[in-house]
Amino acid sequence: MIILGIESTAHTFGAALLDVQSFTEKKVLCNLRDLYTTEKGGLIPNKLAEHHEEVCDALLKKAFAQTGLSMQDVDLIALSNAPGLGHALKVGSLFARSLALIHKKPLVGVNHCIAHLEVASLVTQAKDPVLLYCSGANTQVIAYDGGKYRIFGETLDTGIGNFLDTFARDLGSGFPGGPKIEQLALSGKKYIPLPYSVKGMDVAFSGILTHLERKVIGKEKDEDIAFSVQETVFAMLVEVAERAMAHCDKRELVLGGGVACNKRLQEMCRLMCAARGAACYVPANEFLVDNAAMIAWTGWLMHVKGGVSDDPSTLQILPYERTDDVDVTWR
Ligand code: AMP
Ligand code: MG
Predict the structure, then answer these.
(1) What is the CATH class of 126-282?
(2) Of the residues 91, 189, 246, 269, which has the fewest C-beta atoms closer than 10 A?
(3) Which residues form the pocket of ligand 1, taking CB atoms under 6 Å from any ligand atom?
(4) Which residue CA neighbors atom 5 of ligand 1 most closely?
(5) pLDDT tens-digit profile of 212-232?
(6) Reported confidence tier of residue 135, pLDDT bands at 50, 70, 90
(7) Whose Cα sits closest to atom 12 in ligand 1?
């Protein structure tokens, strides 16, 4: 079965083709994406939508050219219709719904956060992991428990990636800022104490940002600040992830989201898992960042294992859908 996945919830427009015969027999044929970036400043929603409109056709053509397939070969279309930025979701939804209607293909709407967890079963050996999901807008610790994907902890304000991007912007970098902070932190030597903001199972970043902007930036070396920021906020994430693993008695951790590309965060997670005798799975970067392969795979799970099909003429975008709102029929 050939599945076309389309990702369009935020900065990334993605198109992927998967060949899935069964849960164990599957192949990613291609996983393409085009990221909206800026030299200076953050994401502007309508500019982002223009970017996605400009690249969508060409990216799909490239996916077919690379695989030698055509729209006729596609058996299912999966689209990330939730959650995300309305402007981006609208472009993806128009694109996927038009393809489904014109070519008479079944369509499934996929929750993007759940896809970050499900990709673990596409590219790792994880069976029932806790997901530490660290992306631009989302920061959540998610696990399957009692018939649903539950959020065990999450950010109370901004996502970890948005926090890092804003911090990088304060230091003069454009989007995405996370990789620049990672580079800078490598030459940091001094740890500057920062607020440590874990509240129960939740984390918060906006107070740390205010503290940085008012009291630290400009007074200390950028590389020392970057180093201290990483050590502090990643420790917060690892703490709540560990507590969720202990609470659910799960012995696997999987990472997801663009910030999980960060080597220091990966190292801290590996150390925590090793200390408690658990396995730590880190998918390759192309499956950590927003990507359409995870959407296609989750679409296959939902459609084939869960019997989910959406009407292409009425499928809605759900910018605020939460992970725990989704009925899990495929597990
Ligand atoms: P996502 O929304 O999951 O695609 O992730 C995008 C976010 O990941 C942006 O905020 C980036 O700044 C951040 N990011 C990407 N690579 C890294 C990295 N190596 N270290 C920290 N953050 C990163
Ligand atoms: Mg994401």
Answers:
(1) alpha beta
(2) 189
(3) 10, 12, 135-136, 161, 164-165, 176-179, 182, 257-259, 261-262, 289-290
(4) 258
(5) 999 999 999 999 999 999 999
(6) very high
(7) 178
Q: Tens digit of pLDDT for each residue in 247-285? A: 999 999 999 999 999 999 999 999 999 999 999 999 999
Q: Kindly give the number of the ligand 1 atom that is closest to the alpha carbon of 10.
A: 2
Within a 10 A sphere around the Cβ of 47, how many other Cβ atoms? 11
Name the residue of 164, 209, 264 to mutate for ligand 1: max ligand atoms within 8 A of Cβ: 164
pLDDT value at position 50?
Answer: 96
Q: Do 2 and 68 meet the contact criterion of CB atoms below 8 Å apart?
A: no
Length of the chain (residues): 331
**pLDDT number for residue 299:** 98
Q: What CATH code is assigned to 2-119+290-325?
A: 3.30.420.40
What is the best residue among 259, 261, 263 to mutate for testing ligand 1's pocket, by most ligand atoms within 8 Å of CB?
259
User: Residue 127, Cα to own-chain centre: how many angstroms?
Assistant: 19
Q: Kindly list the domain boundaries of the chain, sorted by start residue.
A: 2-119+290-325, 126-282
**Rounded distance between C-alpha atoms, residue 232 and residue 255, angstroms:** 18
In angstroms, the CA 31 to CA 296 distance is 10
Residue 85 token pair: 């930025």
pTM > 0.85 = yes
Q: Shortest CA distance to 281 belongs to which of 136, 121, 155? A: 121
